[in-house]
From TrEMBL:
Gene3D superfamilies: Sodium:dicarboxylate symporter. The keyword Cell membrane applies. Keywords: Cell membrane, Membrane, Transmembrane, Transmembrane helix, Transport. It is a multi-pass membrane protein. It comes from the Bacteria. This is Dicarboxylate/amino acid:cation symporter. It is found in: Cell membrane. Its main location: membrane. The chain crosses the membrane at residues 6-24, 91-112, 147-169, 189-207, 227-246, 267-286, 298-324, 331-352, 358-381. InterPro entries: Na-dicarboxylate_symporter (IPR001991), Na:dicarbo_symporter_sf (IPR036458).
Length: 434
C-alpha cells in the first residue's frame, strides 16, 4: 500500500476512533474508572506522546529545509536575474487570493446571516494577546542575526538571509560553484531525511486526530452551527471553486490533478493545524509531485506558509460579520471594506501555528469597533475550523506556486500529470508506488 493511502486511512481511523472515545466519555457507558484510565493513559498518554513527537519531527526539518533549499533556489534564480519578478508575482498573487477569500467570506456571511437571532452567553471574557503593530511586522522581516532567526524559526528572516546568500553564491565564480554544489548535495540529504520521517507519518496522524476528536466538545456545534457551517462552506468553495478557476485560467493546468497530488500535505495540515510545521511536506509535494522547480518552490512555499492565509482570512471575515450581527451592530460598507483590508494584512502577520488566526481576529474587530468578547464565543468551534482552514492555507500556497512556476517556465507537466509515484515516501525519489 502506498504511503499516501496509509496516511489517508490513518486520518479516517483517527477521526472515527477519537469520535468513538468522545462518545463513550460523554455517555458514561464505561463507568468513571475505565473512562479515567482511557483519558489518562490513551488520550492524554499514548496519543499525546506520539502526536507531540510527530509534530516535533516535522518542525525539526523546517529550518534546515527552508534554508538549504532556498539557498539553492536563489542561486539558480539569480543566474537568470529572476528573483525580483518572481517575488513580485508571488506576493501579488498571495495578497490577491487572500482579498478574494475574505470578500467571499463576507458575501456568504451577509447573505446567510449566521449571527442574526443568535443569543449565546460568552464563555468568559477574552483577553487578546497584543497583536504586533504593522510597522514591526515589516521591520522584523530583516534579521539582525541569522543564527537567532534560525534558532527562533523566524521564517521571513530566514528567507531574506537565504535569498541574499544564494544571490552572493551565484555571483562568486568558482568558489560560488563549489558552495552551490555543496548546498545542492545537502538539499538532497535534507529531503531524504523528510522522506525517512514520513514513513512514521500514519502513526502520527492517527494519534493527533484520535486525541483531538476524543477531546473535542461536540455540544458547541448546536449553538454555533450556522457560523460553523458558513465558515466550512466558504472554505470549501474557495478551495475547490476559486483555486480551480485561478489555476485553470492562469496556467491551464488541471485542478483535479493538483488536488489529488496535494492530498497527503492537506492531511498533515489538517492534523497539525500548522502551516509552518507542514512546510517540509508541502515543499516536497509541490516539488516532487506537482513538478514545480526547486528554484520557485523553495521561495513560494515557505513564504506562503508565513504570509498567505486564505483560510484564516475566511474565518476572520465570517467571524466579524457574525459578531456584528449577533450584537446587532451595523458596521456599514466602509466597515466591511476596512475588514477586507485589515484581514488581508492580518493574515500576512498571522504565524502558521494553531489558533493564531483567532488572536489576529482581535486586530480586525478593533479596527471596526466590534466587541472583542465575540472572540470568546467563536473560540468554542475554532479548533476544528483551524484544522480545515490550515489545509486551505497550504492548498493556496501550492496553487500560487504552480501558477508562478508555469509562468516562469519552471513547471514540469510530465511530473504534474504523472500518477505513478509516491514522492512523500521516498524523499522525492520517483518510484513506482504499489
Ligand atoms: N493554523 C493556521 C495555520 O497554521 C493559522 C490560523 O488560522 O490560526 O495556517
Amino acid at each position: 500500500m502506498g504511503l499516501t493511502t496509509r496516511i489517508l486511512i490513518a486520518m479516517l481511523a483517527g477521526i472515527v476512533f477519537g469520535a468513538l472515545l468522545n462518545f463513550l466519555n460523554a455517555s458514561q457507558l464505561l463507568g468513571s474508572g475505565a473512562t479515567g484510565a482511557i483519558n489518562s493513559y490513551l488520550t492524554g498518554g499514548l496519543f499525546d506522546i506520539v502526536g507531540r513527537i510527530f509534530i516535533a519531527s516535522l518542525k525539526l526539518m523546517v529550518v534546515p529545509l527552508v534554508l538549504v533549499s532556498l539557498v539553492c533556489g536563489a542561486c539558480a534564480l539569480s543566474e537568470g536575474s529572476r528573483i525580483g519578478p518572481l517575488a513580485g508575482k508571488t506576493v501579488l498573487l498571495y495578497l490577491l487570493t487572500t482579498a478574494v477569500a475574505i470578500t467571499l467570506a463576507l458575501c456568504m456571511a451577509l447573505i446567510i446571516q449566521p449571527g442574526v437571532g443568535v443569543d449565546v452567553a460568552p464563555g468568559g471574557a477574552f483577553v487578546p494577546k497584543e497583536s504586533p503593530p504593522l510597522s514591526d511586522v515589516l521591520v522584523n522581516i530583516f534579521p539582525t542575526n541569522p543564527v537567532a532567526a534560525m534558532a527562533q524559526g523566524n521564517m521571513l528572516q530566514i528567507i531574506v538571509f537565504a535569498l541574499l546568500m544564494g544571490y552572493a553564491i551565484s555571483r562568486c565564480g568558482e568558489p560560488g560553484e563549489r558552495i552551490a554544489a555543496f548546498f545542492n548535495d545537502l538539499n538532497e540529504v535534507v529531503l531524504r531525511m523528510v522522506g525517512v520521517l514520513m514513513v512514521f507519518a500514519p502513526y502520527g496522524v492517527f494519534a493527533l486526530l484520535a486525541k483531538t476528536f476524543a477531546e473535542l466538545g461536540m455540544e458547541f456545534i448546536l449553538d454555533l452551527g450556522k457560523y460553523f457551517l458558513v465558515v466550512l462552506a466558504t472554505l470549501l468553495l474557495h478551495a475547490f471553486g476559486v483555486y480551480s478557476l485561478l489555476l485553470k485560467l492562469l496556467s491551464g493546468l488541471s485542478p483535479i490533478e493538483l488536488f489529488k497530488k496535494m492530498r497527503p500535505a492537506q492531511v498533515f495540515a489538517f492534523s497539525t493545524a500548522s502551516s509552518a510545521a507542514t512546510i517540509p511536506v508541502t515543499l516536497s509535494t509541490v516539488e516532487k509531485r506537482i513538478g514545480v522547480d526547486n528554484k520557485v518552490a523553495a521561495f513560494t512555499v515557505p513564504l506562503g506558509a508565513t504570509i498567505n492565509m486564505d483560510g484564516t482570512a475566511i474565518m476572520q471575515g465570517v467571524a466579524t460579520a457574525f459578531i456584528a450581527q449577533m450584537y446587532g451592530i451595523e458596521i456599514g460598507v466602509m466597515g466591511y471594506l476596512t475588514v477586507i483590508l485589515t484581514a488581508t494584512l492580518a493574515s500576512v502577520g498571522t504565524a502558521g501555528v494553531p489558533g493564531v488566526g483567532l488572536i489576529m481576529l482581535a486586530m480586525v474587530l478593533q479596527q471596526v469597533g466590534l466587541p472583542l468578547e465575540g472572540i470568546a464565543i467563536v473560540m468554542g468551534v475554532d479548533r476544528l475550523l483551524d484544522m480545515v482552514r490550515t489545509a486551505v492555507n497550504i492548498t493556496g500556497d501550492s496553487v500560487v506556486s504552480a501558477v508562478v512556476a508555469k509562468s516562469e517556465g519552471a513547471l514540469s507537466e510530465e511530473i504534474f500529470y504523472d500518477r505513478n509515484y509516491d514522492s512523500v515516501a521516498n524523499g522525492g525519489a520517483v518510484t513506482a508506488s504499489s
